[in-house]
Design goal:
The protein is built from 13 helices and 14 strands. The protein is α/β, with parallel strands linked by helices and 391 residues long. Helix 3 crosses helix 4. The protein starts with 22 loop residues before the first strand and ends with a helix. The structure holds ligand T4K.
């Protein structure tokens, strides 16, 4: 890692990169390896590797307790969890979702023959704008999926009110929001159910994995059946289903990672504060903040590059990548601009001005337990130098 203080130090101007090895966004946070190997050893001794094993059951209890919710139904990944939740809620026809989200939110509907209707976001929160959601409701609308983007809860009360007024199902894609709260209530307690992702790149991972959190006993029972082919006991299938089960080794990873949650939050928060301190005062550059009165996982360092910045967002990305800092343009260009949806709804962009605006501005910077303070400072120095020296 080298010192960056003038434009001549930048790799894009011919100098060597700031980092020898690539710095990734979404580097996995990994807990105590010995503890994981112990779980794995016991699992091999038991010869019970999948199908609602003891580690999955223990993990589900602990995740439910952590979020103060009655049920946690683990799944093989967040996308299948979304698909199962959507099906269990009986959504069909049209469902309103943001376009500014990971493609899985939209795909989990289309995959089941449901039309995702893209509603615009609030440019300040990056979450669904309830007033726009209201305008997108048609006779075919059966539900709304809010996304707690970057771990910031969507406007849950306003969306619930709209859902109640129109008899719509409401659920949340909480893939980013493990351990986050809204007005003191943990995520997992809003809408009919909420879906977590435990993908390797997430704040909390089980290699791959996901879960549905709900307080609805009947819904929980239905989703448990659906994730296991509808089996209600030996040779007795009572429901349509698929294979959405979490495996034991994933639950072992989850149990280990639950023990290190506090240290991951601390590392993320410290990184966020360092970025904030070192990026303050740059024209057109802003860092999304966190509400200190709520529980946050601080997993995403989201920088916005607005008009007043002398360097464009895409140029900054080029500069960062040249330094081996693999910052990301999440979630550019928005689902509506991705091939499968662009062809279906070529004019969607006309009603998504804020989505387009935000998607053109965002850069997500590396954070997590693998980032030391001086690494964060160097990333910030590259950005400062690029902006000030107009790289
Ligand atoms: N809803 C939302 C709002 C989501 O963000 C997601 C997932 C879902 C639903 C669906 O949940 P899952 O079905 O995935 O459980 C990544 C993740 O694959 C995806 O899980 C995540 N969102 C999304 C935001 O990010 P990509 O296409 O960016 O992945 P990729 O391969 O480019 O990796 C991202 C970065 O992480 C790279 O810089 C490399 C680094 N990385 C990745 C892995 C897997 C590592 O350093 N180590 C690793 O093991 O989607």
């Amino acid at each position: 890692m080298k010192n960056i203080s003038t434009a001549a130090d930048l790799a894009i101007n011919g100098a060597s990169p700031a980092f020898d090895q690539p710095l990734h966004v979404g580097r996995p946070n990994i807990g105590d390896r010995e503890a994981f190997l112990k779980y794995a050893g016991e699992m091999f001794d038991r010869r019970w590797l999948s199908n609602n094993g003891p580690l999955v059951q223990e993990f589900e209890r602990k995740v439910a307790d952590y979020h103060g919710v009655r049920h946690c139904i683990t799944m093989c990944n967040g996308t299948v969890a979304l698909e199962i939740a959507i099906r269990a809620l009986g959504m069909e026809g049209e469902v309103i979702v943001p376009s500014y989200t990971f493609i899985a939110t939209a795909h989990s509907l289309s995959w089941q023959g449901i039309t995702p209707v893209f509603a615009d976001i609030d440019p300040d929160t990056h979450c669904l704008d309830p007033q726009v959601v209201r305008r997108m409701i048609t006779l075919r609308t059966t539900g709304i999926i809010g996304v707690h983007l970057w771990g910031r809860p969507a406007p849950v009360e306003a969306l619930q009110q709209i859902a109640d007024e129109h008899g719509l199902q409401l659920m949340f894609d909480a893939a980013h929001a493990f351990g986050c709260s809204h007005r003191g209530t943990m995520v997992g307690n809003f809408g009919r159910c909420e879906v977590l992702s435990f993908h390797a790149t997430k704040f909390f991972n089980t290699f791959e994995g996901g879960a549905i959190l709900t307080n609805d006993d009947e819904l929980a029972e239905k989703m448990r059946l659906m994730r296991n082919f509808g089996f209600a006991g030996l040779d007795n299938v009572i429901h349509m289903g698929t294979n959405g089960k979490m495996i034991e080794v994933a639950a072992a990873m989850g149990l280990v990672n639950l023990e290190s949650i506090d240290s991951v939050i601390q590392a993320n928060q410290r990184n966020h504060e360092t970025y904030r301190a070192h990026l303050s005062g740059l024209p057109g550059i802003s860092l999304r903040g966190f509400d200190p009165t709520e529980r946050n996982n601080y997993q995403y360092v989201v920088m916005e590059v607005a008009e007043g910045c002398p360097v464009s967002r895409d140029r900054l990305i080029e500069v960062l990548h040249a330094e081996n800092i693999l910052a990301r343009k999440y979630f550019w260009p928005g689902c509506h601009n991705m091939k499968p949806y662009r062809e279906l709804y070529p004019h969607a962009g006309l009603v998504l001005p804020n989505t387009n605006l935000v998607a053109e501005r965002v850069i997500v910077l590396p954070t997590g337990t693998t980032m030391r303070q001086e690494m964060v400072e160097t990333v910030a120095a590259v950005i400062r130098t690029s902006v000030k020296g107009r790289a």
